[in-house]
Write a structure and sequence with these properties.
- The strands form ten sheets. A six-stranded mixed beta sheet has the order 3-4-2-1-5-6. A five-stranded mixed beta sheet has the order 7-8-11-9-10, sandwiched between helices. Strands 22-23-29-28 form a four-stranded mixed beta sheet.
- With about 575 residues, it is an alpha+beta fold.
- The radius of gyration is 39 Å and the shape is elongated.
- The protein starts with 9 loop residues before the first helix and ends with a strand.
- α2 packs across α7 (about 150-160) and α9 (about 260-285) packs antiparallel against α10 (about 290-305).
- The protein has four domains: about 10-170, 2-Layer Sandwich (Heat Shock Protein 90); about 180-285, Ribosomal Protein S5, domain 2 (2-Layer Sandwich), CATH 3.30.230; about 315-520, no CATH class; about 525-565, no CATH class.
- It has 17 helices and 31 strands.
Length: about 575
């Protein structure tokens, strides 16, 4: 029987390593080796003409053991304390080999010169005396033509590094490094099971997006970014520096955490949430419940909803429908919603509040195709009831038992002193309209927590609108533009009136106004004069009209039948 054991092919490993490393790998490995050697500073100089680097640190440098370890993959020459605290991978030389054609290392009184091609083919390198003493290490690196070196990469690699890094004599900003974060008076450092988190302070609801509060975190391990999730180049989220003895990252580029990552993230989120809760509680104690509810409602709902259970509801969370529902293309959230502004709804206020759930007010074709939805929106416009998204209230809030859901509600309308007329003006071809003194809207099927709720009838005296295909025109309505737009946009469809711009809408409103004035007992003479005034430009072609008198008669279908010139 043939048996086998696990072995690693040296030649095979060498052939695949060239596709393994990126610029982040060898840059971060050089930097990590420097800080592990006790360096307080790392200097990088790049010469674009020769496409070469000089990397210098002020650490302890190389001794005999560390020279050997550096040229052996997965071998570490560090002392036990570094091995225990940082778990070095031992890939520093390997990553550098595939980035350059040659490099020379100066350290203490020695130097090593390496040709990548010869070394990978099995050649040896020798440690030889150098002409001068170097306290730490100096790497002179001739980069391959295929390796692209950009200054912008340095900020990405070293933005959270443990020691200062200088590029061409200019210090690289390290806004995410633990030493910088710990000195910021506006940040809060929180210890958690797997390291430390720099938590952003709680911001009011109206703060800029880049400073709002999130559970999202960018993780750093040994000063290098791992599991990067921030969509923004600036400091948008919280920063967690992880403990190397408890957390590992995938070799070679640390692109993600490995092991029980879910436990790390859950612990991190819990620590951030706890910090937010403490901050919110302190803010509440400082400014009082009214100011707190007005300024921090949304952020408190995310992280400490229990704080809001007895809070007054800011009117800025409630809205009303500020125009009739119709299917015009420009309909959007702003068309229907009007937030109620400053002030509060308090527990002793017995007003009925409608739950937003089931009100599909954003759909383009809602009003055209969904009659129940259309009726609900018109009812809200007529009744002026405040509306709130139930999801903006914490569980157990005092307002929840008072919320009324209209998802299954039916509406019936009864008009007083009504008369049905047919209108043939522009936009209203053969349209039936019910003229009335007022009309009452009755609601059935309103519910709260699956229990029927009785709502009083709502009496409407000054708002014309459509219910179930019937238009109601109460005596108190005088501004017809909203109603005309609804009839043209919904009852006939936008495709029938593609030219429904403001000018055409104005013509429709003018004609409807004339008809209604007549039906309501308006003066025929005034209506006719208004019509002639509107067409003065056309009449100006008749030079003989000024100071002339005419007799105008109409046929039974209200069309001009005869015009007779009278003596002046």
């Amino acid at each position: 029987m043939t048996s086998y054991k696990y072995e690693v092919s040296a030649s095979g490993i060498k052939s695949i390593l060239s596709d393994t490393f990126s610029i982040s790998t060898w840059l971060s490995e050089l930097a990590q080796n420097a800080q592990r050697s006790g360096a307080k500073r790392l200097d990088i100089h790049y010469d674009e003409g020769s496409h070469s680097l000089v990397v210098k640190d002020d650490g302890c440098g190389f001794d005999d053991d560390s020279w050997k370890a550096y040229f052996t993959v997965a071998s570490s020459g560090w002392d036990q304390s570094v091995i225990d605290s940082q778990r070095p991978f031992g890939i520093g030389c390997a990553s550098l080999l595939y980035a350059c054609t040659a490099f020379t290392i100066f350290s203490r009184s020695n130097k090593v010169s390496v040709s990548t091609e010869e070394f990978l083919e099995g050649g040896e390198v020798q440690v030889v005396p150098s002409d001068s003493f170097v306290k730490g290490s100096i790497f002179e690196i001739a980069l391959k033509d295929s390796v692209r070196f950009k200054e912008s990469d340095l900020g990405r690699v070293f933005g959270g590094f443990l020691i200062p890094v200088w590029y061409n004599d200019v210090e690289i900003a390290r806004p995410f490094s633990l030493d910088v974060l710990s000195l910021s008076p506006s940040l809060i450092l929180v210890d958690f099971e797997f390291g430390q988190i720099s938590v952003k302070p709680i911001q009011p609801d109206c703060s800029a997006r880049s400073s709002r509060n999130y559970l999202s975190v960018d993780f750093f391990l040994q000063g290098l970014r791992v599991d990067h999730r921030s969509r923004y180049s600036d400091y948008a989220y919280n920063i967690a520096h992880l403990d190397s003895t408890k957390v590992r990252a995938r070799v070679p580029d640390r692109a993600e955490l490995v092991g029980d990552v879910a436990a790390v993230k859950a612990s991190c989120n819990a620590a951030i949430s706890s910090s937010y809760h403490r901050q919110l509680s302190a803010i509440l104690d400082d400014i009082g419940i009214d100011a707190f509810a007005n300024q921090y409602w949304r952020v408190a709902m995310r992280f400490s909803p229990d704080i809001l259970s007895s809070a007054p509801v800011p009117l800025s969370l409630l809205w009303s429908v500020d125009s009739l529902a119709y299917g015009a293309e420009e309909c959007n959230e702003d068309h229907y919603k009007e937030y109620l502004g400053d002030g509060f709804l308090r527990e002793q206020d017995s007003r009925t509040v409608v739950a937003e759930g089931g009100l599909d007010i954003y759909s383009y074709y809602t009003a055209l195709n969904d009659v129940p939805e259309f009726n609900r929106l018109n009812f809200l416009y007529a009744s002026n009831l405040p509306v709130i998204d139930g999801g903006k209230l914490p569980a157990g809030h005092w307002l929840i038992p008072r919320l009324v859901h209209l998802d299954e509600a039916d509406f019936s309308v009864v008009a007083t002193d009504s008369e049905t007329i047919t209108i043939d003006t522009a936009g209203f071809w053969r349209h039936s309209m019910m003229l009335c003194t007022e009309y009452a809207i009755s609601v059935s099927g309103a519910r709260n927590d699956h229990v029927d709720v009785s709502l009083p009838d709502f009496l409407v005296k000054d708002k014309a609108m459509v219910f179930n295909g019937v238009s109601y025109m109460p005596a108190g309505e005088s501004n017809f533009e909203n109603f005309c737009r609804q009839c043209c946009g919904v009852m006939f469809g936008d495709s029938d009136y593609p030219e429904l711009d403001q000018a055409y809408l104005g013509d429709i409103v003018a004609e409807l106004t004339s008809v209604l004035l007549s039906k309501r007992g308006g003066s025929i003479e005034d209506l006719l004069k208004k019509f002639l005034d509107a067409h003065a430009n056309e009449l100006s072609y008749f030079a003989e009209l000024p100071n002339q008198r005419f007799s105008l008669s109409f046929s039974g279908d209200a069309k001009p039948a005869a015009i007779v010139s009278l003596a002046a």
